[in-house]
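Wed. Picked up where I left off yesterday with Putative MFS family arabinose efflux permease. The coffee machine is broken again, so keeping this brief.
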Amino acid sequence: MLKEASAQRIRLVTFMAFVSMPLSGFVTDIYLPSFPAMAKSLLVHERDIQLTLTSYLLSYGISQLFIGNILDSIGRYRPKLLALTLLILSSLLITHTHSVLLICLLRVVQGIAISILVVATRALFVDLYAGDRLKNYLSYFTIVWSCGPILAPFLGGYLEKLFDWQANFYFLAFYAGALLLFEVLYSGESIAEKKKINLRDNLNLYKMMLQNKLFILGILVLGFSYSIVMLFNMTGPFIIENTFHFSSVTIGYCTLILGFSWMIGGFVTKKRMHLDFVPRIIAPVLFQASLIVALIVVSMFQQSLYIMVGFAFFIHIISGVLFTSFFTNSMLFFPKHAGTAGGLMGGMVYIVTSLSNFIVAISGKVTTQNGLAWRYFIFSVLLTLIIMYMWKLQKNNSGQNSSSS
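Structure written out below (tokens, as returned):
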């Protein structure tokens, strides 16, 4: 039991838990610059490569709905060992196959494995710490996690140029292998008391949460905000390499820049959390829509890498603002069931994102800056409509509360 371990061992386990956090971002994003190379190597359409990402996101999202309760029942340690082993094996298998269908299936396995690792790592901190010390560690979660999406495509672009697209998955196998070796040598079970799974209570709790309109609308805002970012990740590499004729290294630099834009959006939100709904939410989403309309107009006359990435940088900042704001608000809807609400919210956000990505993948080949801009516009319209409906609901609820009082 880790709770009975020495302070030095617990500090080491805590440090390695933070080291493991960016892994989920690496599994998602490291091979994005290699999309064109994979399509050429496997002799398939670009949408088939995009579906490998959709398969992963859908699996990751659905798994989060159930993993938390399972880990509370059977513990954290052995599932983590199994998850890391599956991640190593699936990554190695991907490097030795020429079947896109098999890659999609292996990405489903990776989605489940990463879901186990993410939930178990979050739970480890709650198991080992409490009070202000726990809050202090939790405050670093988003910052540490964001290192994955920021650094992964940058590293992946160089790995693909120096070796081949398979090098990305060899890196994932090495990363997971190092974590597995540490877990075996130094880690252990962190949960003090395992809980029995009460299926009826869990279903009733989920039902109660799903009946809250504002909570569900908030999840949709989170999903579509993240979908805007993933839209570039899915289509941008093909435009940059096939239309603008830049290398995978340039793709890595572009995704690195846009990764920072997402982080900037988070920092901006922290400074604006005290504002009312209109300046905090409605103003940014309308500004984002205006930027996208401007990108459509500019694309009619001029298309270049610098224009596309420049507009995307500010569009993604707004997505980061909206995501961080609604993530914080959604977690406060059910404070007595924060763990379950967080799992439900995280799972549904990735399900919404994966379905959005699937629609993008089957909507046709995106080869131009203008094609990207119009898909941005569709997501922006959906975001605006959902947010305006939320504003109407909030005004009605506040009006009913004032009249009843």
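Quick read: The radius of gyration is 21 Å.
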